[in-house]
Amino acid sequence: MKLASPWAPRLAPGDEPPFERLAGALADDIAAGLIGPGDRLPAHRDLAWRLGIGVGTVTKAYARLEQRGLVRSLHGRGMFVAGTSTMGTGSINLGINAPPQMLSDRLLQATLAILAKRLDAETFGAYSHPAGQPEHRRLIARWLAGRGVDAEPDRTLLTHGAQQALAIALAMACPPGTRLLTEALTYPGALLVARQAGLEIVGLAMDEEGLTTDALAEALGADHGQRRVLYVTPTLHNPTTATMSAERRQAVARLCHAHDVIIIEDDVYGIFAPPGVRPLASLAPERTFHVAGLSKALSPGLRMGALVVPPDCVAEAEARLQASCTTASALQGEIMRIWLTDGTAEAVASSIRADAVRRSALAAERLPKQAGLKVNGGFHAWLPMATEAADRFVARAALRGVALMPARAAMADPSAPEGGVRISLGAPTIAQLGQALDILSDLFRPGRPVLV
Q: Torsion angle, CA of 16/148/318/301, rounded to 10 degrees?
């Protein structure tokens, strides 16, 4: 026997067509937790009768929600609220910074069906330009332009994910002997590449907006006779969640221009940028390598990165890309093309932003105020604490079944006394996330020797 839907049917207020009001009401109630992952939605005819609308209106609303990744259809069983899968057995993984899963099986199947009709054997079997097919480059440049990046297609290279784009940017900008300036806490993947290249890494002071201009000015003012390059994450900084204001970004760009310093801007969380705040690549395009990707914005399964390079660096960037992997995957490029042209990309990104806000609010609610949790509407949060305390916190969380990123992984100087713990909120189900946050909260209870 099929279970009844727990949802109380309603239409959202407004003058929009009924299917949009129905989709809006359901999306709001999913975001509010009134119906959760796995809950059944009402049958089409029953919902149409209860709301006094047509069955076709319900079908259009459900299709809109499925495109956004909020619901999924199971053949012969009905429509259900979508949810994420368990990350491993026996533990809840809050260490991998993946976005919430917003793709439905039906959407993915439909995409692959379109791909099967569109991609012929000759195209699949042919080598492409090292920087990607011209149409794919044009589409990703248009996507980036919508986020304020001056990304002409001929300066935009497609890569196998943002990590490869970052590796190429670091290789081009940082010859041996370079001092890499970055935030005191920064993306572990960048630190890994820099250390493997033997670069001197200099961590700079941070505040609520991320990298401080005073620290940058001091580092640039000290002339060590070395080439200096700035690697920085202005939007939803990983791991601290800080986002630079427009004024801070302009000050950073001015300092780098005054000292002739190359910028590597990590913008993989660009979908979370505040409206009207421009990336560094638009403020200093002549000296900025802009790193972006779709894995954080849409799905980890879409390993498509983009590297926007200064105008005089295109030839070298293409040569380095050709030497490393020849060209990005044609199959992945075609999936990207479909999603960027049919509205899927914007719908999924919008759903990820909405769900990330919900998860951030849950983290802020479940963890005690004395924890000093930092959230900023993204799918990770930051617990600042002394480094040794952070090591113990991660170890004790693991004993309780919650996996976290190693505390020192994001530290430019792993011996620094102050650090913290990143909590990745996106991968687990809401139920799993709530359970894990309760475990972490318990570690702050009096008598728990975590922070001593």
A: -40
